[in-house]
Design a protein that fits this description.
Layout lengths: L1 H12 L27 H4 L1 H14 L11 H37 L12 H12 L3 H5 L4 H8 L2 H13 L1 H4 L3 E5 L5 H8 L4 E6 L3 H11 L6 E5 L12 E5 L12 H12 E8 L2 E9 L2 H7 L23 E3 L11 E7 L10 E9 L4 E3 L2 E10 L10 E4 L11 E5 L8 E3 L4 E10 L7 E10 L12 E7 L1
Helix pairs in contact: 8-10
Length: about 475
């Protein structure tokens, strides 16, 4: 058996994936006693396989070991064998495609200036193409850690499960498209709810594991996994009845996955189809936490007696993601944008000066920033009032893996101290895609403090700051 395994592996290394086993020459000598593959798991498990077979035969009724299988058992084995062969063909095709794409990328030359003309346009176009490459985004979802984090977020996952299982009548017999399926958990929910067909699409290599998960759970006949961008893959159907997707990023719109969901909706969803979730909203509130600011910023003023002010350079340029306690939110929140997923357009995802007004609910020594979170709703139609399932990522709700986003004010430039109950922070917020990377966000807020006492209202000047969510 050891010689046979090593012989087959050696032939496969030479490109012979169906070697001729008729000649038995490879059984002579000791050449194939040496492992061809280092740490070959199959060789290590030979004894276990034989032990299993021996135990299985002992457990069968007398005389039944090696007995002829029934017709139903033969058909089941043939079905499983067909599925395994189809998987093997897909994996080989995917591997070949990836290899050729990488080879083409490596061999593609950078345009060089000709002797007659300095081809700066070609170089700029090539540089722009590289800057627009988002392959790193998809590769970041190839690892287990990020999926473990999302699956263990019970607020998130339970909401999808509860909506799907509580509304099985909406899914029964329907065709469902899962955009950015990851491990395929939402597809599994839909299949269990009675969907006739589920198409799971993801451009990350996690799709290979999703396919295995689907097979392990006996749902290969219902769920079809496709690798690629939703804008580029060819679906096996012209239209779908339901689109389900977990597209939300930090600040809701980070990573720009909603763009792809909107594209899928416009191209594949039937006119009266269902979007899951159905609505989303971004909320804005104020943030004040002396202890956190001291730990994060004042800390650098004296580190074991040494000054390190350079470490604070650009410290206020980026959005900070962290879990904020409700006590650090001195105002109520206000909705800065509502997104009805059945009708929202890509241009609606850019906020160009949305007004806001936030009233202080308690006294604060110093205002330290703005807090952004989002709410998600699952309605059975297009009316948000029908939503019985929803969740928030705000400080008032259970913690989620999205946490909250903090836009910290550089208090050395913008002072907003000694704010009293009834004082208001008014302004405008802009939210747009990053210049160099469309999956990033830029957030700009202009604000002023309006004191409850009119004689103090003019004492605070206008302020403004820009942050990046990279």
């Amino acid at each position: 058996m050891i010689k046979l395994i090593n012989y087959v592996r050696s032939q496969a290394n030479q490109g012979l994936f169906a070697p001729n086993l008729a000649p038995k020459d490879f059984l002579d000598g000791d050449e194939y006693l040496k492992p061809v593959m280092e740490d070959d798991a199959l060789l290590y498990s030979i004894d276990d396989i034989f032990d299993y077979c021996e135990q299985r035969d002992k457990s069968l009724p007398n005389g039944s070991a090696g007995a002829t299988l029934s017709g139903e058992e033969v058909q089941e084995l043939l079905r499983q064998n067909k599925q395994l062969r189809e998987q093997a063909i897909y994996y080989r095709s995917a591997l070949q495609k990836t290899y050729l794409e990488n080879l083409e990328l490596k061999e593609r030359p950078l345009p060089l200036p000709s002797e007659q003309e300095n081809n700066q346009d070609a170089i700029a176009a090539h540089t722009k193409e590289i800057a627009g490459d988002d392959s790193h985004y998809f590769s970041s979802y190839a690892y287990n850690d990020v999926h473990e984090l999302m699956l263990q977020d019970t607020v998130r996952t339970d909401a999808y499960r509860d909506f799907i299982y509580d509304n099985k009548h909406l899914f029964a017999g329907k065709v469902v498209l899962d955009v950015g399926c990851g491990t395929g958990i939402l597809s599994l929910f839909c299949a269990k709810a009675g969907a006739a067909k589920v198409i799971a699409v993801d451009n990350s290599s996690i799709i290979d594991k999703a396919r295995e998960i689907v097979f392990e759970n006996g749902l290969s006949e219902t769920i079809q996994c496709l690798r690629g961008k939703i804008e580029e893959v060819t679906l096996p159907v012209r239209k779908v009845d339901i689109i389900v997707s977990e597209w939300m990023g930090y600040c809701l719109l980070y990573e720009a996955m909603l763009d792809s969901v909107i594209w899928a909706r416009d191209h594949y969803l039937v006119p009266d189809g269902l979007m899951v979730p159905s609505h989303a909203a971004i909320q804005l509130s104020l943030f004040a936490d002396d202890e956190y600011i001291s730990d994060k910023f004042t800390f650098w003023n004296s580190v074991y007696g040494f000054k390190m002010p350079c470490m604070l350079a650009k410290a206020y340029d980026d959005i900070v993601i962290r879990t904020v306690k409700p006590v650090a939110v001195p105002s109520s929140s206000t909705t800065i944008v509502e997104l009805p997923l059945h009708t929202v357009k890509k241009e609606d995802l850019t906020l160009s000066g949305t007004k806001f007004q936030l009233a202080l609910k308690k006294y604060v020594d110093q205002l330290h920033g703005f807090l952004i979170h989002f709410d998600i709703f699952f309605a059975t139609g297009r009316d948000i009032s029908d939503a019985r399932t929803y969740f928030t990522t705000g400080p008032s709700g259970p913690e989620t893996h999205w946490q909250q986003a903090l836009a910290l004010i550089d208090t050395s430039k913008h002072d907003a101290s000694n704010l009293n109950i009834g004082d208001q922070v008014c302004g405008r917020i802009q939210l747009r895609k990053g210049v160099d990377n469309f999956r990033e966000l830029q957030i700009e807020i202009d604000w002023r403090v309006q004191r409850a006492k009119s004689e103090e209202q003019q004492s605070v000047s206008d302020a403004g700051q820009t942050w990046a969510m990279r």
